[in-house]
Specification:
6 strands; single chain; 6-stranded antiparallel β-barrel; alpha+beta
């Protein structure tokens, strides 16, 4: 991934709190956060309430996540990546902190065990994406 493509990705993903997950017609809207560390793009997707079943079912049916996101400036990023369900408390909190940062809140999550058990976080290691 070259720097120009990464900048295009970041331009679209830095705004908003939701993205589209799936392949038409089976598309779900989920909350997200992202990281870009050493040129590696990673998405974190959150499911609680009804979204828990969406994410659990999605992970059970595929190992690759397909996603797309539109920006308010008319650009779109479409891509895919290897999907992992985060299991440990520490991994979930790590992902949740990126999701919270995306929503404009800088403080860290403080959850108890029961709350963390009811939240599903998917990690998507972005492999391919296109800025349109």
């Amino acid at each position: 991934m070259n720097e120009q493509n990464i900048n295009g990705f970041l331009e679209v993903f830095k705004m908003g709190i939701e993205l589209n997950l799936g392949v038409f017609p089976d598309i779900k809207i989920v909350k997200y956060g992202y990281s870009c560390i050493d040129g590696k793009l990673t998405l974190y997707l959150e499911g609680s309430g009804d979204e828990v079943n969406i994410l659990k079912n999605y992970k059970e049916t595929t190992d690759v996540a397909h996603f797309y996101k539109f920006s308010s400036k008319g650009k779109m990023v479409k891509g895919n990546g290897k999907i992992t369900l985060l299991e440990s408390k520490e991994d979930k909190i790590y992902g949740l902190n990126y999701i919270k940062k995306q929503s404009g809140k800088d403080n860290e999550y403080n959850f108890n065990e029961k709350e963390l058990n009811n939240i599903h976080i998917l990690k998507v290691a972005v492999e391919n994406f296109y800025v349109i």
